[in-house]
Amino acid sequence: MPRPAWSDDDVEAFRDLAHTFLAKECAPNEERWGEQQHVDREIWNRAGELGLLCPSIPTEYGGGGGTFALEAAFAEEQARALAPSLGTAVHSTIVAHYVNSYGTPAQKQRWLPKLATGEYVGAVAMTEPGTGSDLQSVTTKAIRTGDEYVLDGSKTFISNGLHANFVITVAKTDPANAAKGISLIGVETDGLAGFSRGRVLKKIGQHGQDTAELFFDGVRVPAENLLGTDEGQGFVQLMQQLPQERLVLAVAAVAAVEETLKHTLAYTKERHAFGKPVFNFQNTKFKLAEVATIAKVARVFVDDCIVKHLAGELDVPTASMAKWWTTQMQCDVADECLQFFGGYGYMQEYPISRMWTDARIQKIYGGTNEIMKEIISRFL
Description:
It is a single chain. This protein folds into 3 domains: 9-120, Butyryl-Coa Dehydrogenase, subunit A, domain 1; 123-232, Butyryl-CoA Dehydrogenase, subunit A, domain 2 (Beta Barrel), CATH 2.40.110.10; 236-377, Butyryl-CoA Dehydrogenase, subunit A, domain 3. It has 11 helices and 9 strands. Helices cover 48% and strands 15% of the residues. Helix 7 (234-270) packs parallel to helix 9 and helix 7 runs antiparallel to helix 10 (351-359).
């Protein structure tokens, strides 16, 4: 692949490190991690030792001191290595940036270095059993009592939920209000009374990425764990950070489309039917020409989004466009390409089957694609 416009020598050096780590220490374990439904806890510490966690967090807080370009490079290499289980997009690209963007100096010094080393695994607890994209309707409460907040509620579908010991929790500090009643609370879970984890949820794809239920039953945390200095800022904080979350999903989607095309081209050129390679049939060539075009268009679009984001110029509707369209294309391409593998495509031992099942969640998390279209429509 040619070097993208948003990259430089430092980014490519980081990419090489990420590629080696993912190929040697993650990809060979993906099947086992899928069976146990989570990565080994130690892999987080190993990633931290290598400087692969929090690469775009300032060095004064233990991070790599780079830009979102490093996060994008890591996301691409995960897709290319077929090693999606280590939840760094949540940990580094999302959780760490909530702290870096809104945390007090004391909060940054307390939490970010531990996230950078892997001592802490980060998660964001937004979704509840009865609340998905409608964040204003969360029912988890964080009520101020003296110098503490008391948290009550439950969360579900929480990525990194099994291992997370630092959870940014979306809660109502003013239950009478909708958006203006929401705050973000940093919860350090180790040994915390009243905090518990439910089951690790069985998913149709991304089997090695631990996704769990979390429960807060009279959980007491210091009032200083409020992210920022004022209550009621949580909804605004979430809205400001979601474009970066959606962009990293688009980055992964494009890389997945490219990888899916690569695997399918190799298979159809070596697999024979009726005395000739499957690739030589006109239908195959035309369909893969369409996929190649989608890959090219998606690559140019997302690379431009990254350039804009690095310059602080990526707007909300464009980020939403990138998220919905690339993830839709990822699912469409995986489905089209699996067909060329015939029965083998339905077997788990073939990477195309995992590409197909892993792709489906992309249209749901980070805000459903229907929500993305609703957001875009508001700017028309």
